[in-house]
Amino acid sequence: MTALQDDTLTIAGRSYRSRLLTGTGKFRDLEQTRLATEAAGAEIVTVAIRRTNIGQDPGQPNLLDVLPPSRYTILPNTAGCYTAEDAVRTLNLARELLDGHRLVKLEVLGDPKTLFPDVVQTLRAAERLVADGFDVMVYTSDDPILARRLEEIGCCAIMPLAAPIGSGLGIQNRWNLLEIVDNAKVPVLVDAGVGTASDAAIAMELGCDGVLMNTAIAGARQPVLMAHAMKLAVEAGRAAFRAGRIPRKRYASASSPVDGTIG
Question: Are 108 and 118 in contact (CB under 8 A)?
Answer without folding.
Answer: yes
